[in-house]
């Protein structure tokens, strides 16, 4: 159980990084549902409003992560025992 809780703690900390591709994928999927033909290339080379949207979602996630971090870390440390 010790290794599993350490793995969960590591994944929790790394989630600040691996959520970026997930957010981009979800954003592209959401935009496809509205316009029908939205690709990563359009996000990358397109209007800045899309880039600001992705950045705003990511910053919102970081704010939520920061608010929940102490609670999640303490809960995961309790799992070690």
Describe the structure.
This protein has three helices and no strands. It is mainly alpha-helical. The protein has one domain. α1 packs antiparallel against α3. The radius of gyration is 17 Å and the shape is elongated. The mean pLDDT is 87.
Question: Brief description of this entry?
Answer:
This protein has 81 residues and is mainly alpha-helical.
Q: How many alpha or pi helices?
A: 3
Poorly predicted residue ranges: none
Terminal-residue CA separation:
8 Å
Rg over CA atoms: 17 Å
> Averaging pLDDT over every residue, what do you get?
87
Produce the secondary structure layout.
Blueprint: H1 2-35, H2 40-45, H3 48-79
Helix pairs in contact: 1-3
Characteristic terms for this protein:
mainly alpha; 81 residues; elongated
């Amino acid at each position: 159980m010790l290794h599993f809780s350490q793995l969960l703690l590591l994944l929790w900390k790394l989630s600040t990084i691996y959520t970026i591709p997930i957010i981009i994928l979800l954003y592209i999927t959401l935009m496809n549902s509205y316009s029908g033909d939205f690709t990563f290339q359009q996000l990358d080379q397109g209007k800045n409003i899309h880039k600001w949207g992705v950045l705003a979602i990511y910053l919102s996630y970081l704010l939520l992560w920061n608010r929940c971090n102490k609670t999640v870390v303490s809960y995961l440390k309790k799992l070690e025992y």
